[in-house]
Design a protein that fits this description.
Elements lengths: L3 E10 L2 E11 L4 E5 L6 H9 L6 E6 L2 E2 L10 E4 L11 H11 L4 H14 L15 H14 L4 E5 L7 H18 L2 E6 L2 H7 L2 E6 L2 E6 L1 H6 L4 H6 L4 E7 L4 E3 L4 E3 L11 E6 L5 E3 L9 E13 L2 E8 L2 E7 L12 E6 L5 E4 L3
Parallel strand pairs: 3-8, 3-9, 6-7, 7-8
Antiparallel strand pairs: 1-2, 1-4, 4-5, 9-10, 11-12, 11-14, 12-13, 14-20, 15-19, 16-17, 16-19, 17-18
Length: about 350
């Protein structure tokens, strides 16, 4: 049974629909990421859960209780903002204790709780400092500690790492996941960073233009996207436009691609074939016979990404990207002719006008 349940939630601003008919069930103790581009409605949805925005329609249930009209301070929900929102005139300890004071927690209990969360975020030595004396990453940890101090039923994080350096973001998202797992606290995490969402969450909600495009586990979202938006927003996907040509192939002009059986399409239907860069093999010699898709092309760009190198290939006027590793591919040079190969099961076929 869902612990946090959003039913048919909608919200408009000045006649512009921000969130439309949003339905989502979140199980207790899980971390769910709202992922999508700017303006897709993810932060608006988060603010409705927190009570900072009123619903135009729909219902939000928390532990089977309707909280749609409950004031924010009575929802027992903790929130961490992108801007940290720490009180500059209060020390770290005083910032963390603020919510406990508002709840009139006995002083001895409050001190114990502050020490617990300081240990949790591994910043006990900063207790007497002021926010301006901390790094951005430390400030965000303190903001997280403050939200957790009051032991909320749900934790909301709104782009919590977007203002931090890349290296700090990677470290801190791991810390957030560790703390969330230790506390088993139900968490909603808003981000536009696909890598962040996929690495940190139990479930990903991909949003676009106020609606949910797909909900699923990170691996499912990446490996089995249900719409073209999800396929192209999550990771990189080569797109070959063409028409269904028989039961197991698509005529894309520059090449006729072999696919898995096309049960849900009709002959001549306009489609797009999506192929991930990591599913393409690079050959330096013309391929032999076999049930492979093979596309000749010329290397235009070579971009080093650490574990993999990404090739930008001109294949008959279409740009195709393929990822190679040093261990399984011979050295490739600019302007070199190569052959791109992939099996039919690496092709995901979707309707062209989605």
């Amino acid at each position: 049974m869902a612990y946090l349940d959003l039913k048919n939630v909608s919200k408009s601003f000045a006649g512009t629909l921000a969130v439309k008919d949003f339905n989502l069930e979140i199980e207790k103790g899980t971390l769910v990421a709202f992922l999508g581009p700017s303006g897709c409605g993810k932060t608006t949805t988060l603010r409705m859960i927190a009570g900072f925005e009123q619903l135009d329609s729909g219902t939000i249930l928390l532990d089977n209780s309707d909280i749609s009209s409950v004031p924010p301070n009575r929802r027992d929900i903790g929130m961490v903002f992108q801007s940290y929102a720490l009180f500059p005139n209060l020390t770290v300890r005083e910032n963390i204790a603020f919510g406990l004071e508002m709840k009139k927690t006995p002083k001895k209990d409050a001190e114990k709780r502050v020490n617990q969360v300081l240990d949790m975020v591994r910043l006990q030595e900063t207790a007497k400092r002021f926010p301006h004396q901390l790094s951005g990453g430390q400030q965000q940890r303190i903001a997280l500690a403050r939200a957790l101090a009051v032991q909320p039923r749900v934790l909301l994080l709104d782009e919590p790492l977007s203002a931090l350096d890349a290296e700090v973001r990677v470290v801190l998202r791991g810390e957030i996941r560790r703390i969330q797992s230790e506390l088993a606290i139900t968490t909603v995490y808003v981000t536009h960073d696909q890598e962040e969402a996929l690495s940190i969450s139990d479930k990903v909600v991909v949003m676009n233009k106020g609606i949910i495009e797909q909900v699923g586990a990170p691996e499912e979202i990446y490996r089995a996207p249900q719409t073209r938006f999800v396929a192209t927003f999550i990771g990189t996907a080569n797109q070959f436009h063409g028409k269904v040509d028989g039961r197991e192939s698509v005529d894309c002009g520059i090449v006729r691609l072999l696919t898995e059986p096309l049960k849900d399409f009709i002959n001549g239907q306009s489609v797009v074939v999506l192929v991930r860069p990591e599913n393409i093999q690079v050959q330096l010699e013309p391929p032999g016979e076999g049930r492979w898709n093979s596309i000749p092309g010329v290397v235009e760009t070579i971009t080093f990404h650490g574990a993999v190198t990404r090739l930008g290939v001109n294949a008959g006027g279409q740009r195709v990207v393929a990822d190679i590793t040093v261990s399984n591919t011979k050295p490739v040079a600019l302007n070199q002719k190569i052959w791109l190969q992939f099996t039919p099961d690496m092709c995901q076929v979707m309707v062209a006008d989605e």
